[in-house]
Amino acid sequence: MNVAKANEPAPAALPARKVDWAPLVLVPLLALAALPLVGSTATWTTLTIAALAMGMMIFIMASGLTLVFGLMDVLNFGHGAFITVGAYAGLIAAVPLAGWLASDQLAVNAVALIAIILVAMAVTGLVGYAFERLIVMPVYGQHLKQILVTMGGLIVIQQLVIVLWGPVQIPLAVPQALRGAFFFGDVAIEKYRLTAVVLGLMIFVAMQLVLTRTKLGLLIRAGVENREMVEALGYRIRRLFVGVFVTGSMLAGLGGVMWGFYRETLTPGMGLEVMVMIFIVVIIGGLGSVGGCFIGALLVALTANYMSFLAPKLALGSNIILMVAILLWRAQGLFPVAKRA
Amino acid sequence: MPEAASGSAAAAGAICAPLLALAGVHTHIGPYHILHGVDLAVPRGGLTVLLGRNGAGKTTALRTIMGLWRASAGRIDFDGRPIAALPTSDIARAGIAYVPETMGIFSDLTVRENLVLAARQGAMDADRLRWLFGLFPAIERFWQLPAGTLSGGQKQMLSIARAIIEPRQLILVDEPTKGLAPAIIANMVAAFRELKATDTTILLVEQNFLVARALGDNVAVMEDGRIVHAGAMAELAEDRSLQQRLLGLSLDMHQ
Ligand SMILES: Nc1ncnc2c1ncn2[C@@H]1O[C@H](COP(=O)(O)OP(=O)(O)OP(=O)(O)O)[C@@H](O)[C@H]1O
Ligand SMILES: [Mg+2]
């Protein structure tokens, strides 16, 4: 559904569209500032790549949440459940395909990995659809109830995971071909982390393309700003929202799979564990902004990684400090989303 | 509601029936009772001006027609069809476009993208676009800029352009001249004149009586959530005492 460009007269020379660079510069700035503190370039590179991988995963998990909030002001505290469900649903394919994952042929690994991801996304998509229907729809526009009800949904789903897969942690090995690291001198880059970075970037670029180049994407962005006007132009915001919710759930499921491989073990609480970080990312990015979510995820992951190396005792609080600092600079987040007055 | 009776009546009077008719419309916003039985008929083809003091309920009436507030009683018929129970998107698709008082521009989207969304049929028609550029040159000049960077008057023009990028039967416009410089108001009046010539029915909320008089074929005056006067614009324009009584002004004050 590309936006047609035919028939349009070429506009005269225009002032260039302004790009808000400051938040984008923050990422390399933070990384460079950490270099002298960390000292060793090799350690710094390892930390940075690990943080980028982590940041990409957080972005994938958080991107749906920010759009869901932007579009319908829905605070979905149950989003973490989709992360857990995604990781466990991946097992449905990972267990029978264990042999393929252990194969030393990249192609066989890749097929198994794709199968796992597809199963995870299909299941989280369905769970997300049901969650929206049964839990979120009845409480549109009621924030307090949303918090309580979606948290209730989270607990129920978490318990269901325990019933289906048990309470103990389940090991999940990274596919054979993605184990180990590339070495550049004394710098080691883990293959799986590199894969996560590439996959995350691909998803970010794909989302940006959809949001800026297709009519559907324009509608989503328009709806985040003013959903009444989208309705008044003749579009059903409700359908748009369900689509975004389901897609966001599927992305959380994908993030869950990637996160599961990264940790190499699954626990029923794994989704909840990252939710604090995800909320921080969504808030500092600017509620409803996918670009802000991306930059926010990278900043949060870099901060967490450097701090856990430099001052492990402060690591826990460092993201809160980051959030406060960013909100003092821009109270609406890195990329404030215009909202109807 | 007398569904059966109105069905046959609509068939009988289809030719001279108003394009839009509100009958006994009440609107509540939360605990507040805002519209108290609005009766309003918008004839086909012309421009009807809705006048009234601040807080009279003009915006609420337009929002109720669009389904953005729900009428708690009464009926709204568009082209002989009841629309009061339809979702806003269906009301829009029935052929009503809306230019809200707040303009409702998508500021993060470019001028072009705003229009792309308004053109539901797909690609924008080149002739129509050229016509729009003629009406509002700023639209062409700022084609690729984020709409948020436009001035207030330019945003107003974009909002109107969005409503007419494809032919619609009825356009609801809420105070398009608010805060505009006189030269821009003149431009706006000319644009509405041209729009009137295209067979589009317009319901225009307007505080500026000179603009209202220049454009209106018919007029309705609201007060405290009711229509207190409806008739031809010419009649109101000539009757100073009626103006004084309804609007608390006479034309002299504007000149
Ligand atoms: N969201 C709302 N909540 C409560 N009351 C409202 C709301 N919107 C409007 N009202 C009230 O409804 C009444 C009518 O408002 P409305 O905006 O329809 O008036 P108006 O005729 O458009 O006025 P103006 O000329 O100032 O735009 C006012 O008394 C206003 O205070
Ligand atoms: Mg108003």
TrEMBL record, chain A:
Cellular compartments annotated: Cell membrane
Transmembrane segments: 21-38, 44-69, 81-102, 108-131, 152-172, 192-211, 240-262, 274-302, 314-331
Pfam families, sorted: BPD_transp_2
InterPro entries found in the cross-reference section: ABC_transp_permease, BCAA_transport_permease
Chief site of localization: membrane
Transport found in the keyword field: yes
An example Gene Ontology CC term for this record: plasma membrane
Keywords associated with the record: Amino-acid transport, Cell membrane, Membrane, Transmembrane, Transmembrane helix, Transport
UniProt record, GO biological process: amino acid transport
Database matches in CDD domains: TM_PBP1_LivH_like
An annotated Gene Ontology molecular function: transmembrane transporter activity
Record keyword Transmembrane present: yes
Recorded topology in the membrane: Multi-pass membrane protein
Family, similarity comment: Belongs to the binding-protein-dependent transport system permease family. LivHM subfamily.
The name this protein goes by in its record: Branched-chain amino acid ABC transporter permease
Source lineage: Bacteria, Pseudomonadati, Pseudomonadota, Alphaproteobacteria, Hyphomicrobiales
Automatic annotation (TrEMBL), chain B:
SUPFAM superfamilies: P-loop containing nucleoside triphosphate hydrolases
Record has Transmembrane as a keyword: no
Source domain of life: Bacteria
ABC transporter domain residues: 20-249
InterPro entries: AAA+_ATPase, ABC_transporter-like_ATP-bd, ABC_transporter-like_CS, BCAA_Transport_ATP-bd_LivF, P-loop_NTPase
Keywords: Amino-acid transport, ATP-binding, Nucleotide-binding, Transport
Gene3D superfamilies assigned: P-loop containing nucleotide triphosphate hydrolases
Name of the protein: ABC transporter ATP-binding protein
Entry similarity comment: Belongs to the ABC transporter superfamily.
Species for this entry: Chelatococcus reniformis
MF GO annotations: ATP binding; ATP hydrolysis activity; branched-chain amino acid transmembrane transporter activity
Pfam families registered for this protein in UniProt: ABC_tran (PF00005)
Gene Ontology BP annotations: L-amino acid transport
